[in-house]
What we know:
alpha/beta; Alkaline Phosphatase, subunit A
Amino acid sequence: xxxxxxxxxxxxTRRELLKLAAAGVSGLSLSGWMGRLAAQAAGEKRRGKSCxxxxxxxxxxHVDTFDPKPEAPQSVxxxxxxxxxSVPGIQVxxxxxxxxxxxxxxxxxxxxxxxxxxHGRARIAMHTGFRPGAGGISYPGLGxxxxxxxxxxxxxxxxxxxxxxxxxxxxxxxxxGFRGPRYQPLVLEDLSRGLENSRSAVADDxxxxxxxxxxxxxxxxxxxxxAPAAEAHHxxxxxxxxxxxxxxxxxxxLGAETRAARDAYGDxxxxxxxxxxxxLVEAGVAFVEVYLSNWDSHERxxxxxxxxxxxxxxxxxxxxxxxxxxxxxxxxTLIIWMGEFGRTPRLNQAGxxxxxxxxxxxxxxxxxxxxxxxxxxxDAQGAEVTERPISTxxxxxxxxxxxxxxxxxxxxxxxxxPIRMVEKGEQLIHELIP
Length: 434
């Protein structure tokens, strides 16, 4: 029976079948959702740890955020001051009053020192843990690694979700590398539209008939082509259909939250992304990445614009921490706040700050870490690491360890080459690990 035959008997056109093949996916191929799935009861949640990466695209200034230098000259500290936190002796930038009250749950890593100061290369390095092009290998990002190692392959929901606006420019950050397309993320660029095409527009029996035909077409194609991409597409279609049948797509519906809950996160895409991250983690998703762009502050006008970004972070991230804590999920959810590098401590002639990877800051919250502490330090102007330099592989190994992932494990590439999860030479940040 061909597609035309089915059209005459059951009413499904070729166009409708193509729409069905894309069901549940916005801006991403079905092959990017998940691996091969098996049946799972609706509502069953993933057990274990989760990770939420709050990615500050463009590189935020460490001096203006979580490594303030109130005693430094104004040419270094700029116009922003420092405020105390809930932990005596720890100060943060004045634009983070809400997060300051939650510092007992956080650890500030003030001694990041990494080799890449170019946006593109640094984005890849800080997502994968490897310098771009090292060994001629395409390395998986942290989200793909987490999805592969601690995600549930049989869950109806995807194990890796990305939300934010600059994604169309940075396709490399969606690339699962040698992990393969089963561990590519589900990308949501417009949260106001939710998860589109995730519900059938026809009755269940008609939907099932159409699905049966589509599965027959897919199976025949996979059998004839026998290519990894074809098999991944088939598995992705299966995952989309299981999600549609499970009813768990409701996790993407921010409208299910009260107005007060939505307002707490802020009326901006970053806040909505944080709220979605909380809903997805609560539903069992292993890794969620929330993007906030426009931190590339070379000029004074752009630098001043980052103050609004700081307020967005303060609102969204603090509401996220509070919600996870009240739901008993903070200890099992590691929140990472970071960009690809920092900014120069001294203001440039245009009143902004340039790229700076020599000394910068990241922030970890929850996930069972030993909170209420600062790890490492920089000098009085934030220009040099003076205590406990943290490399890219130190950072990645520690994050993996906190999530229960064996960072020393070797993973086989499709070509049969064993690749260590984290590049050798790492030094765990033991100050964070209970």
